[in-house]
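Exercise 7. Predict the joint structure of the components listed below.
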Amino acid sequence: MTADPRISIQRWTNLSIGVAVVVAVLFVVLAAGPAFLSENLIDRLTVLFIYVCLAVMWNALAGYGGMISAGQQAFFGLGGYLAIRLSEWGVEPYVALILAALLAGVFSLPISAIVLRLRAGEFAIGMWVIAEVVRLLVNLDPIIQGDTGRSLIALATFDAVERRDYTYWLALVSMCFLLAVIFVMLRSRLGSSIQAIRDNEEAAASVGVRVLVTKRIIFVTAAIGCALAGGLWLATFTTFQPRSFFGIQWSAYMIFMVLVGGIGRFEGPILGAIIFFLIELWFGTAGVWYLVILGLTALLFSLFLPGGIWGYIEDRFHVLLLPVGYRVRMPGPSAEDADASQSVTAK
Amino acid sequence: MAFLTALVEGVLLGGYYAMLACGLSFMFGVMRIINLAHGSLAIVAAFALWTIADRYEYDPFLALIVVLPVMGGLGWLLQRGILERSARSGELIPILSTFGLAIVVENVLFECFGADIRSLAPYVGSLAYDSFDLGGGSYIGELAVLTFAVAILLLGGLQLFLTYTPLGRQIRATAEDPDTVELVGVNSRFVNAMAASIALVTVGLAGLFLALRSNFDPYAGSLQLIFAFEAGVIGGTGSLWGTLAGGIILGLAQTLGAHIHPQGFLLAGHAVFLLVLVGRLYISRHALRGFLKARLGW
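Solution:
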């Protein structure tokens, strides 16, 4: 079979090249942020970067891998706890954060052996149980002092301004690194494999996709990313309390960000994290009602707009800011309509 | 002797878990949906019963006459309003919707009732602390025995209902193949909504016994969901009596774990659950048969 020479596969469009340039410029501007932004804004942006990390990781797991986890707080908490543990052993605090994330990745391997064969809802609650187990085990460590928690004391060796800037830069670099990793992964063969598994595990296996290995790569990546976010959260707020680090609210936040932004779209979780960040900024003081609104919004999106805001924009206007899919350009007047960028992810 | 008492307590606690888990397994069996709001809805029933008992001074058992039909109605609404719609977008979306629902339910409960820890035990006279003398200085709570008996009745009743009534047959048929039953004149939407109602009635009953045997607060639901899920998985989803076995194994693990270490109650329960998962994965039927052949010459 010879392909029609007029049909071509396109990945980068003029728009997405433009966007990539804008992203690069934005990164440079943000990196220079501490020079001209207020301390308050630096703190807030650090939190935003951590939210983006979490949302992107959860989206990689759920939106691309089809693994909806109600227990990613297991790794978020583990990242915080291991950072404390390593720092107590004399590791320099910022190094400890990164090592903790990698260690959490190592711990996620045996966990993956247990949970990866669970399907859909079973996986979701199975991960929730894992998070509970990890919390209970961490509670057994005497340095955590039960629910009292422990501070990352070693951070006190830096002065307040230095600490703020270092944490900000580390959060910025972590976010960009995780985004880049997911971007490269999705554009590679792995990206097609994992989406094939999400859509139909048996069918994917039948055409030679190595189901368990592929799922494990995504799972471990998401574990490392969430643990890194947990470590950064610890560096920002200094105190590790098992109950708040391992709390189910983290899953609620991740689900909210990804669902509202657009599940299974590269740009979705970034948009979702920004929306979540703004809602928290404006309504976070409303206490429990704020959580009711979050839950209700997630519920309504799942019922009426399961593709999220970005999914709606993308389907409606065929824009694709960062190219993780393929576009098939067909001859004829309907060239732009034949957008197959998402058709690898047949619904 | 204390060990023996712990064993009996564990088995009886298993009755409660079976009661809690059967609604979750039932819904999963019929609609292939795991309802993450399951635990929070049990807490809703507990608060409803508590309100009736506290404000109007009715006996909590009598209050069931009001609360169980309301729970059934909630089940109907849950199926028609949320599950049916979200299931159309694939098997993953119902997980997200029911998780969102759980967050809404528990935080609304918190707004209405605050953070105080409540219990129904003060409203049932001496039932909460009366016990049977087993001799040798060991006692077994009357409430625990009652819970176990109700669980057996509930599971048996469900079994009879599914086997012998027309609606029961329709539910089983819909669970097998919702499209084909439509061809023979069954309204599968109606059947699913009825199944959800029945599931939530069992959740209401579980809410009563939860509130009688322990304290609860608005956020107590997630742990109950986890227990229900663990009992279901240990027993093997899809079988009512398996759920009872799963509940008993979970209850035994927890009471014996609590015997060993103060944190052991939860850890031992989770550990047994994880062991069962590992077992389920690595001892496939094929491997087991090979093992039996090699070792026992079968």
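Discussion. Chain B has a mean pLDDT of 87.
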